[in-house]
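hey so i finally got around to running the thing on that chain from the lab meeting. sorry it took forever, my laptop kept dying and i had to restart like 3 times. anyway pasting the input first so we r on the same page abt which one it is
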Amino acid sequence: MRRLASTVCVITCQYQGVRYGITATAVTSLCFDPVSVLACINTNSSLLQPLLSAKKYCINLLSQQHAPISQRFSSPADAHQRFTLGAWQEDEEGIPYLADAQANLFCSMDQTLPYATHQVVIGRVSQCLFSDTVSPLLYQNGAYAIAAPLPEHFVS
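ok and heres what got predicted. didnt touch it at all, straight out
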């Protein structure tokens, strides 16, 4: 799976007044009608139980300058310490989101499916926020990477 390049995301929720979040790369669009996304979350993740209880969350698509935030959210730091790095805000329902992320997808949990070591979470997107720039942070072959357009001679 190391060869599968993925956009780096941080999935966040708030449950009983506590913010939770993890770094995730197993996130993809699922359907256009209804607009929905799919995320695969390890059953041992600190986010899973609060997420299943809260049922509302945000998928923050990180930009290339957010590598330190990705590292913070993939470390064993306490839940509240993860949010001390970055421009975090809360929406009207208290869901934390990264204000300068490439995009924020606010979701309501629609379905879940257990599979081996993970829980597949399908969410309906209720709101999207987008930044003006497109500079996704990617993860491939065990390292952070950036996307760059191919020269014309590669695509013609």
